[in-house]
């Protein structure tokens, strides 16, 4: 940076050549391996009829895997549960990526006001274009699947704004949802004006996607290890293409949230407070774990109406009492599937702790993931059982 000219900040990313080189390399490689064209082609070519009779993920990534419902299901029903996992999982990813599209731009708005941060902003622009292709592919496949099998939405939804709650099935009531919306709107203004908060968003983004990266790697392997890649299910291909893009996105989160942020002036007390509030919000979103879908921290009782619809549909063809009893045995009794989801939750707590250990501004409560870690199997079962009694009365 030309020190003879006055600047808004007496800093430059060029003053940290190591970090500058890392972000430049990340952008170069992301461009080289950009999967946008393959995503768009997959969405265009998807035909449910050609892959309706085979799994789209490794078997263990199936809805209600290793619960009572799964164990009683026929091979044909298990295929549908496997496909439903794909639709449900990527419906949650759509929600997260809508938020990413928006906050990439607000963060770039803050960072572009600093010398030599253009390369970071260019990286975010590429990401945003990729996210739009991801969202379109997930949405097209999910909606076609649900139209064919149910004639209505189960996990998909109309397009939404980034100010809706990111976690689709949570335990937030109407008042808390309204408060969360207000917080997101306030964060938008702050992140667009504070370079520190703009960068700190990527710390939170990296934290939120850390577990997702592990799960998506497993999903991508189904295509990567398929015996006939050319004729493998298009949703499996989409999982693979998405993982390639997201691997670079996670790398961007790490570089910006861990390294680029150190090229900025030290945060004020207010900025540190806001940063810790954002991490606390992540803990709240990831407090629950779902018996129905391992790898996404959904609130099981919020899923009860959806699961009831699935069991009453032509796939399972259960009557009212059969559906309720199947749900009770799956959500209110300990199972191998429930234990697997709980294990994923505990592993995520440990990986989040490791991810945050080097930050100076983060509070002890956030570094130890105290709130998220306080959930356990006993609480989960008690919550599910109490909520199921209420649900049973509502649908009686």
How would you characterize this protein structure?
With 396 residues, the chain is mostly helical. It has one domain (13-394): Ribonucleotide Reductase, subunit A, CATH 1.10.620. It is 66% helix and 0% strand. The chain is built from 15 helices and no strands. The protein has helices spanning 17-32, 36-45, 68-72, 75-111, 118-149, 174-191, 195-224, 234-259, 269-285, 300-312, 320-331, 336-356, 364-367, 370-373, 377-394. Helix 10 crosses helix 15 (377-394). The longest helix is centred in the first third of the chain and has 37 residues, at 75-111.
Main features:
single chain, 396 residues, mainly alpha, Ribonucleotide Reductase, subunit A, 15 helices, 66% helix, globular
Layout of strands and helices, then pairs:
Elements (H helix, E strand, L loop, with lengths): L16 H16 L3 H10 L22 H5 L2 H37 L6 H32 L24 H18 L3 H30 L9 H26 L9 H17 L14 H13 L7 H12 L4 H21 L7 H4 L2 H4 L3 H18 L2
Helix pairs in contact: 1-5, 1-8, 2-5, 2-8, 4-5, 4-7, 5-8, 7-8, 7-9, 7-12, 10-11, 10-15
């Amino acid at each position: 940076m030309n020190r003879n000219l006055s600047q808004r900040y007496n800093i430059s990313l060029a003053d940290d050549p190591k970090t500058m080189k890392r972000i430049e390399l990340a952008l170069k490689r992301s461009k080289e391996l950009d999967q946008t064209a393959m995503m768009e082609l997959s969405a265009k070519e998807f035909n449910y009829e050609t892959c309706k009779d085979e799994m789209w993920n490794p078997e263990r990534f199936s809805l209600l895997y290793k619960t009572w419902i799964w164990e009683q299901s026929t091979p044909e029903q298990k295929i549908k549960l496997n496909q439903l996992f794909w639709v449900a999982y990527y419906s949650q990813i759509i929600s997260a990526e809508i938020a990413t599209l928006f906050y990439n731009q607000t963060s770039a708005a803050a960072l572009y006001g600093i010398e030599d941060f253009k390369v970071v902003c260019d990286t975010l622009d590429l990401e945003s274009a990729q996210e739009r292709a991801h969202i379109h592919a997930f949405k097209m496949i999910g909606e076609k699947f649900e139209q064919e099998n149910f004639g209505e939405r189960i996990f998909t939804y109309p397009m939404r704004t980034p100010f809706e709650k990111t976690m689709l099935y949570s335990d937030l009531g109407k008042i808390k949802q309204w408060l969360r919306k207000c917080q997101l709107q306030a964060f938008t203004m702050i992140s667009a004006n504070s370079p520190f908060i703009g960068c700190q968003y990527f710390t939170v983004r990296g934290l939120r996607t850390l577990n997702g990266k592990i799960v998506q790697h497993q999903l991508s392997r189904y295509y990567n290890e398929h015996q006939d890649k050319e004729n493998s299910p298009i949703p499996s291909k989409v999982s693979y293409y998405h993982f390639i893009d997201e691997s670079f996105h996670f790398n961007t989160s790490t570089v910006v949230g861990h390294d680029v942020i150190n090229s900025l002036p030290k945060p004020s007390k207010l900025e540190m407070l806001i940063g810790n509030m954002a991490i606390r919000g992540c803990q709240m979103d990831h407090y629950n774990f779902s018996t129905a879908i391992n790898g996404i921290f959904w609130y099981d009782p919020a899923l009860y109406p959806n699961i009831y619809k699935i069991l009453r549909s032509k796939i399972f063809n259960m009557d009212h009492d059969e559906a309720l009893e199947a749900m009770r045995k799956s959500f209110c009794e300990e199972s191998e599937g429930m234990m697997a989801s709980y294990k994923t939750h505990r592993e995520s707590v440990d990986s989040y702790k490791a991810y945050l250990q080097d930050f100076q501004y983060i509070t002890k409560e956030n570094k130890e993931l105290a709130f998220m870690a306080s959930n356990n199997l006993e609480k989960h079962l008690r919550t599910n059982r109490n909520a199921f009694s209420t649900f049973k009365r509502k649908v009686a």
